[in-house]
Write a structure and sequence with these properties.
about 280 residues, elongated, about 40% helix, alpha+beta, 8 strands
Length: about 280
């Protein structure tokens, strides 16, 4: 099936009419986007309000499932994430500072806004690939004021985010008995000398491990070796405790809604401007 223009026009005139039509559609789309930006900004501001510091903090219970291996509470005084402020700045620039009628500029701002919100969602989901996810590298718990508990060289507490909760993981560490140097993925590489010993592990502790070895660990990091505070260690025990946080659940849902809206506008702009997503 085909369509024809009647009365017939020249090819050059047809191309000009198509360009004029796309320009008019882009102008309309940019005006509609300006009407939608306050709604996007409002959604991000609601996320900020949910995570903003409170005078008394948000106290969340901590307890291991069906046992009291770990029991206590954590007070979230401030979980304000900088990427939300960055996203709000992009919206303000798109509205007031930049040229709201420049398609290329607005398209670039939408791409940047979508990437920042997508990064925020990734941080909310947790995992090793996000900032603070690698407990052996991002040792922010090295100061005893972080968790208000004494520092033990063989104990590694680490707090990360999940979509609906704060996740506290406590690991007990032992030196790697292997003669090889291992990287953080668990694979061995040759080395002429082993790394420094983990501070706090005395000769008596090492003899105890040899003469009365503990049962082999069964957790997911049992076969990996980590470089922690300059020493190669293995994880003997691993305990995970989740503290459900209604604010994080709400922020996750709102961020997903804002991200879908931004992606929708990116798709419309790409179609009209002939760009790839």
């Amino acid at each position: 099936m085909s369509a024809q223009v009647w009365p017939p026009i020249s090819h050059e005139q047809l191309i000009k009419e198509e360009e004029d039509s796309l320009a008019a559609e882009l102008e309309w789309l940019l005006e509609a986007l300006q009407d939608a930006l306050p709604s996007l900004k409002s959604g991000l501001e609601e996320c900020l309000a949910l995570l903003a510091p409170q005078e008394s903090g948000t106290t969340l219970a901590l307890s291991t499932h069906r046992s009291e291996t770990v029991k206590g509470f954590v007070t979230r005084l401030s979980a304000l994430l900088t990427f939300l402020n960055q996203a709000l700045d992009i919206i303000d620039i798109s509205t007031w500072t930049g040229d709201p009628k420049n398609g290329s500029f607005i398209s670039g701002q939408l791409r940047l806004l979508g990437d920042i919100i997508n990064e925020a969602k990734a941080i909310m989901n947790g995992g090793e690939e996000v900032v603070g996810g690698k407990w052996w590298e991002d040792d922010f718990n090295g100061d005893e004021t972080d968790l208000n508990l004494p520092v033990y060289p063989t104990l590694s507490p680490h707090i990360t985010l999940t979509p609906s909760s704060l996740l506290l993981t406590i690991r007990t560490l032992v030196p790697d008995p292997s003669a090889s140097t291992h990287n953080t993925t668990g694979t061995s590489t040759p080395s002429s000398a082993s790394g420094p010993s983990l501070t706090g592990l005395s000769l008596r502790t090492r003899l105890t491990q040899i003469l009365a070895p503990m049962p082999a660990p069964t957790h997911d990091e049992a076969d990996r070796t980590f470089l922690y505070r300059g020493a190669e260690v293995k994880v003997r025990n691993k305990v995970r405790v989740e503290a459900q946080d209604p604010s994080l659940m709400a922020v996750g849902a709102k961020l997903s809604a804002v991200w879908r809206e931004v992606e929708g506008w990116r798709g419309r702009m790409a179609i009209v401007m002939g760009e790839d997503m």
